[in-house]
Amino acid sequence: MKFSEFNLKPSLQEGIKKIGFYETTEVQDKIIPMLLKHQNVIGKSETGTGKTHAFLIPLLQGIDEEKFEVQAVIISPTRELALQIHHEIVRLMKDIDARLYVGGSDREAELNRLRIHQPQIVIGTIGKLIDLAVSSNELKIHTAKFLVIDEADMVFESKEIEYIDQLFVKFEQNIQVALFSATISKPLIHFVNKYLTKCEMVDLTSKEMTKSTIKQIFIPTKNQDKLALLVDLLHSFTPYLVLIFANTKIMVDEIASYLGNHQIKCAVLSGNLSSNERKQVLKRIKEGAYHYVVCSDIASRGVDIEGVSHVINFELPEDIEFFIHRVGRTARYQQDGYAISFYDYDNEDYVHQLIKKGLKCSFQVLKNGVLVPTRTRNRMVKPMEALKAEEELHRKTPMPKKVKPGYRKKRNEQIKKELQKMKRKKINDLYHKKGKMKND
User: How far apart are CA 125 and CA 78, in angstroms?
Assistant: First the structure.
């Protein structure tokens, strides 16, 4: 479908042409007409499908440019995503008063400006919006007619639920709501049931766990120096842009330092950076100053870094959903991409779960600077002995008749830790046995 078919106001049509948009993506084709009809929508879609413009175009269409009051509010889980959305609004319609409210900004200057006049569009993170709209009551969001919650599964994390309630009291009951999320979590369902009497669900996610255009490769790292292996791996191909993921800020810095010592220039994107530092790093990445970016999960959600040819999981994330979001940074907009994941003993169950969920992948090792297939996959299926051990632990840790909140999760974590201890002991015993045989 062409954007010209939506009968949009001339100023918005001009902005769409300027950014080079002519035909809609699938998510835009479905969502835009619904939002233009003032329906409440939950859009479940993968990253890189064009959902930002799917809500921005109807939002901007509904803005009265002569009315200087808050007409639309966009809630973002991260500063980076909020900044990106603000940037897209400016690209589409420069004369709209759209203001960005995120942590690390000049609060006093924001309050003074709000006292002069209100913005037409508000883009912000939960904490900042609570501060300005609830605590200080200087941001008058009660006049808003349209609310967007982007990456809603991140916004609706347990610690944010009470903030959402505080914020929602400020809105009119008949406000139009659009939520976009890669996954539909329990807190999100709770929110919908509580605040939305009627909404349409549009599920545009693929039945496959990840895009078919992503080649998934798993590399076993047992008994290997992972940092040295990473350097060898990076020398084995010529990328356009590589995102290297670690689970902690400390590991991000360690990887970046090691790569730097081996003459591999890389950018760092993690929670250690200030808002301005992150902006500068993202700007330099987009300008092509770096081919390698070492990052924590802050970069796997909401930050649109174009041209990612490879994603490397130096460490697998604890949550499988984050694995999906990480690898989803490549193969965007119908491009091909590679997702390469390191895994060790403790990750075998994790990888097994990915395969069980339908992930299509290959197991490879690096030999003489080339990735070659290995038979490691055959060892990923749990042996009968392991299954029996797991069953025995479940039997020894019975479920009480009355289950307290969170107990089930704690119980499963405890069983998982015991299984890992057993696995390590078995591996150590094998190496001890081999060493003894050599000595004999």
Answer: 6
CA distance 36 to 57: 9
User: In the prediction, which pLDDT does 289 show?
Assistant: 95
Return the closest-CA partner of residue 367 out of 206, 224, 184: 224
- The radius of gyration of the chain from alpha carbons, rounded to an integer in Å, stands at 25
Provide the pLDDT for residue 378.
44
The shares of helix, strand and coil residues in the chain, as percent rounded to the nearest 5, are 45, 15, 35
Please give the CATH number for the structural domain made up of 214-378: 3.40.50.300
Task: Count CA within 13 A, CB hemisphere, residue 160.
Answer: 22
pLDDT of residue 137: 95
Q: Is the dihedral of CA 75, 78, 83, 85 positive or negative?
A: negative
**Tokens matching residue 208:** 């496959």
For the chain, domain boundaries: 3-203, 214-378, 384-439
Asked if residue 119 lies in contact with residue 63, where contact means CB atoms within 8 angstroms, the answer is: no
Residue 105 is predicted with a pLDDT of 87
3-state DSSP assignment of residue 333? coil
Point out the residues of the chain with pLDDT beneath 50: 378, 380-384, 434, 438
C-alpha distances out from residue 59 to 20, 55, 125, 164, 345, Å: 19, 6, 18, 21, 49
3-state SS assignment for residue 334: coil
Six token digits for residue 58? 């109807």
Retrieve residue 124's tokens: 């912000």
Q: Cite the DSSP H helix spans in 117-241.
A: 126-129, 152-155, 161-168, 186-195, 226-234
Virtual torsion, Cα 347, 299, 122, 153, nearest 10 deg? -10
Q: Return the closest-CA partner of residue 419 out of 393, 399, 398.
A: 393
CA–CA separation, 28 vs 6, rounded Å? Answer: 11
Measured distance CA(389)–CA(397) in Å, rounded: 12
Q: Taking Cα atoms as reference points, which of 247, 246, 338 lies closest to residue 293?
A: 246
pTM, two decimals, is 0.61
Please give the CATH number for the structural domain made up of 3-203: 3.40.50.300
Q: How far apart are CA 294 and CA 213, in angstroms?
A: 23
Ramachandran angles phi, psi of 261, nearest 5°: -70, -15
Tokens 């895009």 correspond to 211
Residue 134 neighbours by CB distance under 10 Å: 15
Question: Which tokens in the block code for residue 349?
Answer: 């169950």
pLDDT in tens, 396-440: 776 666 656 666 667 777 777 777 777 666 656 655 554 555 455
